[in-house]
Amino acid sequence: MLSKKIESALNEQMAMEGYASFLYLSMAAWCDREAMQGCAAFMRRQSEEERQHMLRIFNYILELDGHPLTPAIAEPPHFYDSVQAMFNNVYEHEQKVTRSIHQLVELASEEKDLATFQFLQWYVDEQREEETLMRTILDRIKLIGDGPQSLYYIDKEVERINQAQAAADATQGAAT
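and the corresponding structure tokens:
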């Protein structure tokens, strides 16, 4: 059984994951409007992944006889000055989520909730991967530069990264 403190913190994390899903979906719409279909597909996949993160917490709370609360989710931004600004926003958001997960791990440890502590290890690993992925994309954007044709090459590179991630996810899903 979850303590009320852990349950509340997990519900807050669920809201953060829901916001991330909406944030990525909003970014997908912006990318579509900017004719960057590769980036849009990447953001749609990320949005679905964040939704799954939220549902994973939802189901965990239920499993431990808690009460998951479907969160009210703030409206994310809809416009960005550039693709680089958008990915900077994503990277900053992922860092915020990482800090929140680390705080949850600390709380689970303080509360001596070993089940939740173990459950959260998946999120610790996932956040490390997410931050690395976003840093990689930002590094590629910097390499490509901001010349007139850069958006085309950025979009193609993000599309390539997205396809590789989707293939890795499919392989990992088949293995489990």
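(Above: one complete record from the training split.) The chain has a mean pLDDT of 94.
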